[in-house]
Design a protein that fits this description.
Length: about 250
């Protein structure tokens, strides 16, 4: 019989470690690059990006080669979308705009088979040859809802009390927009809302996540954030600009 692949990112979080999720990795080759670099999870972008259902299978297989968690952000908190992404091989799911405890409960239920949840009965490639698949799948799914509206921040105590969630991820971009500060995540009110939400998540004894950069990662780690999201484009831009500047100075 085949062995079910343990979700090492989930295991690391549960043991008190820190994981980094690389955002917007939409093909298997790129997933392997970040897996080789030692990141714990990659996020295929199904809300804003071009990810296809076919690609999820290839991405998840590439991630398996490096023991990386293959996450998919679906475009809404819909159990049918969650089931399909998991059946295609995703080992983690992120859903947007979780604003209430009931919405968080729906998500926690959607990623699990019964009796713990309502995930549709199928399984996909991860079920092939695996004994006791349903239990093992339930134990190895990484579930991360996005806290990205000011109403969610106001409801964060109730949301953070929901079981079955691995990390509550505070997303600054949409949060800023919901507060009337579109494009200005650095606004003091937005930063305060982020800090307040993270504080309440940690106070509840739960794992907090948020988007970080080179400039902010130390601050959030010191706050106690364990689930870090990063956008790789700024690294590419910085490296490319440094190279272009060198060429311009010497040529």
């Amino acid at each position: 019989m085949a062995e079910y692949r343990i979700n090492q990112a989930k295991k690391k979080l549960e043991s008190g470690g820190v994981i980094t999720i690389v955002n917007g990795v939409n093909d298997g080759d790129t997933a392997e690059i970040y897996g080789n670099l030692g990141f714990e999870a990659i996020l295929a972008e199904g809300e804003h990006g071009p990810i296809s259902w076919d690609a999820i299978g290839d991405i998840s297989r590439a991630c398996d080669l490096w023991d990386v968690c293959s996450m998919v952000r679906v475009h809404r908190n819909d159990p049918s979308l969650v089931t399909r992404a998991l059946d295609r091989g995703a080992s983690g799911i992120m859903v947007p705009h979780v604003d209430t405890a009931d919405q968080a409960k729906l998500f926690a239920s959607a990623v699990r088979f019964g009796p713990d949840g309502i995930r549709g009965q199928f399984g996909g490639r991860r079920a092939l040859g695996v004994s006791d698949f349903h239990r093992k799948a339930n134990e190895n799914i990484l579930a991360v809802p996005l806290i990205e509206d000011i109403v969610a921040v106001r409801n964060i105590k109730e949301i953070a009390a929901v079981d079955g969630i691995d990390a509550f991820y505070v997303a600054p971009g949409d949060l800023a927009q919901s507060m009337g500060h579109t494009g200005d995540t650095a606004h003091p009110d937005v930063q305060q809302a982020i800090d307040d939400a993270i504080g309440e998540i940690l106070k509840a004894g739960r794992i907090a996540g948020t988007l970080v950069s080179d400039a902010t990662v130390e601050r959030y780690l010191k706050m106690g954030v364990k689930c870090l999201g990063i956008a790789p484009a700024p690294w590419l831009t910085a490296g490319a600009m440094a190279f272009r500047n060198t060429v311009a100075q010497i040529s």
